[in-house]
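Support case: user asked for a sample of complex input and structure output to validate their parser. Sending the pair below.
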Amino acid sequence: MTVIADPKAPRIPRSGPGRRSTRGNTELYAWVFMRVSGVLLLVLIFAHLISNLVVGEGVSQIDFAFVAGKWATPFWQVWDLTMLWLAMIHGTNGMRTIINDYAEKDRTRLVLKSALYLAFAVVVVLGTLVIFTFDPCPVGAPADLLPSFCSDI
Amino acid sequence: MTATLENTSATTSGARSEMGEVPSFQVTLRVQRYLPPDDAAPAEQEVGGDAPGDARWDEFTLTMYGTDRVLDALHKVKWEHDGSLTFRRSCAHGVCGSDAMRINGRNRLACKTLLKDLDLSKPIVVEPIKGLPVLKDLVVDMEPFFASYREIMPFLVTSGQEPTKERLQSSEQRARFDDTTKCILCAACTTSCPVFWTDGQYFGPAAIVNAHRFIFDSRDEGGAQRLEILNDKEGVWRCRTTFNCTDACPRGIEVTKAIQEVKRAMITRAF
């Protein structure tokens, strides 16, 4: 039977991998970020949904021209960019904690987290690129692939 | 006046005869028993992991009374049916915290759970608490639990000259941490925590509760050090506020609230 040590005695090192001490404020900042970004995302996402689906003609207004029109203004570019980054970091951090909670082996954790961070990088890079370099009427493209309003310019 | 007296004597004698009749009933107890690992296949029991191959289930049908607790049923089994049944208990009155076990899927003290409060139409399932290595039957190795407890320095930390009298404290200052002084270290909370079940690395609610008891003590000066210890990857930030610990605590400590207060203290310190 295990002998119960004196409470003040130095801790007996655990068998197995033991707890790796990771003091630092990373987890604290991650926790605060989740709360702050959560509140911001509520505002950002609901304004996004209302402006797209409720205001004006509603759902039927969404087409290529509608999206092109939104991304022509810096306001919606910044809005969508903030939404993209906050949602992706918020979601990735949430998935990271779920992996930490459920994956027991270090190797499983490594594989799952690598896949997660790769997905994060692809979506964020691609999304950011599209928001800033979006051109509805690229020069030299065949006319039948372009929306009707490009011919008006 | 005479009538009153007659009435009183009638009711008391009536009550006495009612009190004598403690209802008895049949109880089926389904207890998880330990199977020692085969010599051929050495034990590969992981800390925090279930080992389904290392257990069997025994059922005992007993005649128990309305005043009996699960601990009394276990005693009856050990004393009259199967002396090899192994479990921990010391005071048997909910103070020492030795007999925390999983009864019908919930962590409770066997000495505080009355049989009549459970569903007696089905067998009462008794298992060891989860997440700690089982030594035998209902006895688990508490060492990982106490290691986390020691790590948060559960003793008064002060500096300077020792006062000649006692260290004074107002009743408001005492009330600040009153709830967390009630902990009896039974491990019901820590072993009800799904985060602790995963790999047993999380400090666990009990360690945080006992850190809270000193962090918010006006006489103590080790608060910053304790917050530093719990600001770990495996510290308070792994808490997912599932409230399992608050539900499990036999002392009614608001465990999740205490953990949140430690988190808040860390955030106000950092910003």
